[in-house]
Write a structure and sequence with these properties.
The complex is a heterotrimer of chains A (500), B (170) and C (330).
Chain A: H1 8-11, H2 13-31, H3 37-47, H4 53-78, H5 87-98, H6 102-136, H7 140-151, H8 154-157, H9 162-177, E1 179-180, E2 187-188, H10 202-219, H11 238-260, H12 266-280, H13 293-317, H14 323-334, H15 343-346, H16 348-371, H17 373-378, H18 384-403, H19 406-424, H20 430-452, H21 457-466, H22 468-483, H23 486-495
Chain B: H1 11-33, H2 43-65, H3 74-77, H4 80-99, H5 101-117, H6 121-142, H7 154-169
Chain C: H1 2-20, E1 28-32, H2 39-55, E2 59-63, H3 70-78, E3 85-90, H4 96-99, E4 109-118, E5 120-125, H5 133-142, E6 148-151, H6 157-166, E7 174-177, H7 181-190, E8 195-199, H8 200-208, E9 212-217, E10 248-254, H9 259-274, H10 276-284, E11 287-292, H11 294-314
Parallel strand pairs in C: 1-2, 1-3, 6-7
Antiparallel strand pairs in C: 3-10, 4-10, 4-11, 5-8, 5-9
The chains are: A mainly alpha (500), B mainly alpha (170), C alpha/beta (330).
Chain lengths: 500, 170, 330
């Protein structure tokens, strides 16, 4: 009875506590910028080498689920996302904390992360084979269109000036090109330095732009008192859970699909569903960017849903859905399994075991997320003179830890200063990071697509409009692009003159 | 925050610097593979840096035309603490490799906490030591990140400690 | 109080003193050229715990990725030659010189152990209109530029294997670049590419499950993991002069490391690679265990470099002639 393995981690006390410890540790790993789930899981490979496989997997799954959620903590409290998938969370989470509503924001994001987690697991449990076959049908041109759809988010993230937003996005794309071109090993923007061959670490850019520049900015008011957080309610009211359930379900579905695509993960999922929420929410209580709850919920639900999504191709085909599942595949090899298309047939109990452990980790995430808040919120109430030097130190260590490279530290500091001035002069940081995340996806898939069509643009467009999937994506790209231009509002006025 | 209808001190300079940076990067991008073809490694970088050039020029033109802001001085852009911390971080980055992680970080934390809290040296030292210990335990001991050792022979000490611990356990 | 503290410090000094006399007296750093979860990473993390037991020390492994391994190679080359920094890598540095990726290769390093070698094979999408190497060659020649081959950049396994193939037959195909064999094999299953030369270990599970078909096994003998597939040399004996060929994994220290340290490390990893658990793990992934050290390892490296460098040079994908670097023609 393979399905019985679903409950294996629930009834075995040792496995249960390993999942719990993993989830708890994961929340903190996720919250500290520079400590990533990828790092934690790859260290666990050596650490759990001599363990039983079930024990090792329990711990890794806990860390994964907790870590994806944990990034939201520092995003909300300090405006410093602890992980790339929490970048979108900061945009509306931090304004809420500034209003003294950190407790409520964390409560809501925890609940909706759990909803996202469950949706992801449900899709994994009920539709994994179908979803993974669907993910495989994505051709290079579809990835290209998806990435273009992503880069159009610049329109939502630009703030006061679209031109400055596009500049920031293009800067991000350029940063993403630095290093040896992964496809031809041609040097790009390396200035002859071997240290730059590996490119500029995306995490180092993120820590610099968000962590250091934010710390510098807040040092302007080093003597002012921290915002006093009122913690009345942490567990959100039932009515508000119900109210926001539709948007979190929709975001979760975006999260699962993007998570299941090999090559895209929780960071892109979170940003795309933030944009989605912004488009579909007609009358938010507060405008987006100033503490809209929809803007907090959507990315949080999506990034946890992407966890279940990432396991879809991994468990059905042995294809990792993201960096963490790639390492878990390595761990399974070391423990004598052969993750691949045969895993579901030869060892179906593994599928059920992982599913059960994921559900358990989500439950623990909910419990730990809702109980530890008071203590966590105290962090923001620390004197700034203590907090900010520590954040800067963590930023430096974190940037170093990504690839054990001192060059990354220098870049991190450089981007910190650049980010400080950009914020000062009305440039948004979001588009830069968006550009860095999407740069490789656009560049690689553009080239693959155009090479496959023998360098012919007409052939490429012919391919796009004869494939249903590509056509749908292309139409979405066109619609979103047009909606960002004046043409749209003009057309809308013409067509629906009566609308207020 | 930033008021788009007024020009802050340094904003004009910053926008011109960005134009210069964009032009430089565009020039670099054209050198990667030239205009070889649609799939050349240099095509996408040229597109990205080209967009930078265009937008940077537009921003610069807009900025130059803005009236100067009268209420903000340079102090508002770069308050003392920000300059102080930026300088501290530059020193930190320079000293990290030769001197090593532990001493550099301790001095960094000590000075910045002391100056910003205006507290006694002892209190600042205590806080710094605690913060550093926390970071060290998490990153070095749990996550095995080997920060530059510099003048402190960390790995010998840790190996020594481990041999004592295991010796004691037998 | 103070004296107690001093006593403790003194005790620590004394306690560490005997350890100082013998290698390893501190943690060893293991620099892995490739990312977490990749095959190099998996192999290194699987063998090292067994070697640690023999060595009696700890090896802290870190991934230092980028520049097809050049960054890690350069980093280890810049450390002291004291045996406290190991380079854990794959075959790539042996091609840096001819590929114009710098002037280092493994001749600047002393091999501790050449752990294992992979076997290349050529797989195709199930819908591809050919089922074996002969049919593929005919189809490709009848439909020039239409068949899409996956590749992983210059010097990667697909480029070398293709160079080998084109030395005997003409193959006018379109190369679609991917940044690793994993993503390329995924694309193969989705139909974005038609054919992919890959290492057996990466493709074996997909083949077993019938998600892709084997076109050719690029080796001189059938492989126990795929007993029904005949080696390519049966129909095309011309390839015998290059084979057996395959990517490999090895552990290295910088030249100039004291002999006793090299001895000790070689002995430890030699034991580690022999471990039954490790052997079954690595053979299950379709790799052939080599366990070479000392002169054997050195001559393996030299032969590999000479065969491959000339192969890619003759195929016209190298940036410089192997002759410039004194690499003899095999």
């Amino acid at each position: 009875m393979d399905f019985a393995h679903f409950f294996m981690s629930w009834i075995d006390l040792q496995l249960l506590s390993l999942v719990a410890i993993g989830t708890f540790a994961g929340i903190y790993v996720g919250a500290i910028p520079g400590l990533s789930v990828t790092m934690a899981v790859s260290i666990l490979i050596s650490f759990t080498f001599s363990w039983e496989m079930y024990d090792a997997l329990s711990l890794m799954i806990g860390i994964y689920m907790g870590g994806v959620y944990g990034g939201s903590r520092t995003a909300i409290l300090l405006n410093i996302p602890g992980a790339p998938s929490a970048i979108a969370t900061a945009m509306d989470g931090y304004p809420l904390a500034q209003k003294g509503l950190a407790g409520e924001a964390i409560g809501l994001s925890t609940t909706m992360s759990a909803v996202g987690g469950f949706v992801g697991i449900a899709v994994l449990g009920f539709a994994a084979p179908a979803v993974s076959e669907f993910a495989l049908t994505f051709q290079p041109r579809d990835y290209l269109l998806l990435a273009v759809l992503g880069i159009l988010l610049v329109g939502s993230l630009s703030g006061e000036s679209l031109v400055k937003g596009i500049f920031a996005g293009a800067l991000g794309l350029t940063i993403g090109c630095v290093g040896l071109d992964p496809l031809t090993a041609q040097e790009r923007f390396t200035f002859g330095q071997i240290e730059l061959w590996g490119g500029i670490s995306f995490i180092a850019v993120m820590i610099g732009l968000f962590g250091v520049s934010e710390a510098l900015q807040q040092l302007q008011h080093v003597d002012s008192e921290a915002v006093k957080q009122v913690i009345r309610r942490i567990v959100p009211q039932w009515s508000s859970v119900v109210k926001y359930l539709p948007i979190s379900m929709q975001s979760s579905l975006i999260g699962v699909i993007i998570g299941a695509l090999p090559g895209t993960g929780g960071d892109i999922a979170a940003l795309m569903s933030y944009d989605y929420a912004k488009r579909v929410t007609k009358n938010p209580e507060v405008p987006f960017g100033q503490g809209a709850k929809e803007g907090l919920i959507a990315p949080e639900a999506a990034n946890n849903a992407a966890v279940g999504g990432a396991f879809v191709p991994m468990l059905t085909l042995g294809i990792p859905g993201d960096a963490v599942t790639a390492i878990i595949i390595g761990a399974m090899f070391i423990h004598g399994l052969n993750p691949g298309p045969m895993l579901m047939i030869e060892r179906p109990e593994m599928f059920w075991f992982i599913l059960g452990a994921l559900v358990l980790a989500t439950i623990f995430m909910l419990i730990f997320g809702l109980t530890g808040i008071r203590l966590f919120v105290k962090i923001v109430e620390l004197p700034r003179a203590v907090l900010f030097p520590l954040i800067l130190l963590l930023s430096i260590v974190g940037a170093f830890a990504v690839n054990n490279s001192i060059i990354d530290v220098y870049f991190m500091l450089g981007f910190g200063v650049l980010g400080y001035f950009m914020k000062m002069y009305g440039y948004q940081i979001g588009p830069v990071i968006l550009g860095v995340i999407l740069s490789r996806l656009i560049d690689d898939n553009w080239r693959r697509a155009i090479i496959s069509d023998q360098e012919s643009l007409p052939r490429l467009f012919h391919g796009i409009f004869t494939s249903p999937l590509s056509a749908v994506l292309m139409i979405a790209v066109i619609l979103i692009f047009v909606s960002n231009t004046p043409l749209w509002s003009w057309g809308k006025r013409k067509l629906f003159p009566a609308q207020p | 925050m930033h008021d788009p209808s007024r020009r802050l001190p340094g904003e004009r300079l910053f926008s011109l610097l960005l134009v210069a940076l964009s032009l430089f990067l565009f020039y670099e991008a054209t050198k990667i593979s030239g205009f070889e073809g649609l799939s050349a490694p240099g095509s996408f970088p040229m597109f990205a840096t080209g967009s930078m050039v265009i937008t940077a020029v537009i921003v610069a033109l807009q900025t130059v035309r803005l009236p100067e802001s009268d209420e903000h001085g340079w102090r508002a852009i770069l308050p003392g603490f920000v300059i102080f911390m930026a300088v501290m971080m530059i020193f930190y980055a320079l000293a990290l490799k030769p001197v090593g992680f532990l001493p550099t970080s301790f001095v960094f934390l000590l000075i910045s906490t002391k100056v910003m809290m205006r507290s006694s040296l002892a209190k600042a030292a205590l806080i710094s030591a605690l913060s550093l210990a926390l970071v060290y335990v998490v990153f070095r001991l749990i996550f095995s990140v080997l920060m530059p050792e510099g003048i402190v022979p960390e790995r010998e000490i840790i190996a020594g400690m481990r041999s004592i611990l295991s010796g004691g356990g037998q | 109080m103070k004296s107690k503290l001093l006593g403790a410090v003194a005790a620590l000094m004394v306690a560490t003193a005997p350890a100082l006399a013998e290698y390893p007296e501190k943690d060893i750093q293991g620099i892995i050229q490739w990312g977490a979860g990749g095959s190099t990473d998996t192999v290194m993390r699987a063998v090292t715990p067994h070697a640690e037991e023999v060595l009696g020390g700890k090896v802290v492994m870190q991934n230092m990725t980028g520049g097809v391994g050049a960054i890690a190679t350069k980093y280890v080359g810049a450390q002291d030659a004291d045996g406290y920094t190991l380079l854990m890598g794959a075959e790539n540095p042996q091609l840096y010189k001819v590929m114009g990726l710098g002037d280092t290769d493994y001749s600047d390093f002393t091999p501790i152990n050449i752990i294992a070698r992979g076997v290349p094979l050529i797989v195709a999408n199930n819908d591809a209109p050919f089922n074996n190497f002969k049919e593929m060659v005919e189809y490709v020649q009848a439909h020039p530029k239409e068949v899409k081959f996956g590749s992983t950049g210059p010097g990667g396994l697909p480029s070398v294997v293709t160079a080998m193939l084109t030395s005997e037959v003409e193959l006018p195909v379109t190369f679609v670049p991917y940044d690793g064999d994993g993503p390329a094999l995924t694309a193969l299953q989705g139909g974005a590419i038609d054919v992919m030369p890959a290492v057996l270990g990466a493709a074996i599970e997909g083949v077993k499950a019938g998600r892709m078909k084997v076109i050719a096994l690029v080796d001189v003998a059938a492989n126990p993991a795929l007993p029904d597939v005949a080696p390519i040399t049966v129909d095309y004996p011309g390839y015998e002069k290059y084979l057996p060929w395959g990517p490999f994994f090895g552990i290295f220290v910088k030249n100039g490391t004291p002999d006793d340290v090299v001895q000790k490390l070689s002995a430890a990893y030699g034991e580690g690679v022999k471990n039954a658990e490790f052997v079954s793990l690595i053979e299950g992934r379709g790799f052939t265990v080599l366990n070479l050290s000392g002169d054997e390892a050195r001559s393996f490296l030299n032969k590999w470099q000479s065969v491959t460098s000339w192969l890619v040079f003759d195929a016209g994908i190298a940036k410089a002639s192997p002759e410039e670097f004194g690499i003899p023609r095999p």
